[in-house]
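Appendix B, record 7
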Amino acid sequence: MSESDKSPRKPGEPDGDQAKRGAPKKERMKKFYKTVTLSPREGEGGAALLLDGRPVKTPGRQPLALPTEALGEAVADEWRAQGAEIVPESMPMTRLVNTAIDGVQGNETAVADDIATFAGTDLLCYRADGPDGLVALQTSRWDPPLRWAETRFCGPFQLSEGVMHVDQPEGTIASVRSSLSELSAFELTALHIMTSLTGSALLALAVAEEEMTPDEAWEAAHVDEDWQARQWGEDQEAAERRAARKSDFDTAARMLALLRA
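Structure tokens (predicted):
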């Protein structure tokens, strides 16, 4: 899978080339608040973010309310860390929470369906037919999470060599989809980001269920890329793009952990 294939782009978001062509820079907002606090939500659990005692809204004008106090503190810390100006790039958890509230709440079924679709064409199921070193590396890194998934979802996953499509058993994918139906909008948001960035719903689910660490899953997702880099050397621009994607992946994995803390 290529670099661009693994990089999700939100609707309306410019691609890298558009950005380089001189998209106008937005002026940063001056910091307008002094205090950042959390207010418990009566009867609902979790907390709402307050700036100078006033509730905050998402870009979609929804209350910025967090389902757990731990996640609320992570978001509040980003707001507390702002200096004279508000720098959105330094607030990845806030951006992810806004996506969950404005984009996923009310659309949970569609997001879960999309993750399940990824499982039907999962990275772990498409193996190289050579060279031997790459084949062995894929086997060592991909077989353990694949075996876990087969046990977890009570069904087999079929393997293919190269890019030849292989249909996965309907019952196995239905089991994956059923497990996703139990998740909240926040959990689905994190899983969808992780799935899109790795090309593997199974790796994302393994992290969610603490079968793998985020670093283990990220390394497994980049077996092919790392193999090529060892053979031909690392491209600096590709390395920078990968580092940016890894940061997004880690934020999503951290959100999952905070939701379950």
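Remarks on this record: The longest helix spans residues 236-259. The CA atoms of residues 28 and 148 lie 46 Å apart.
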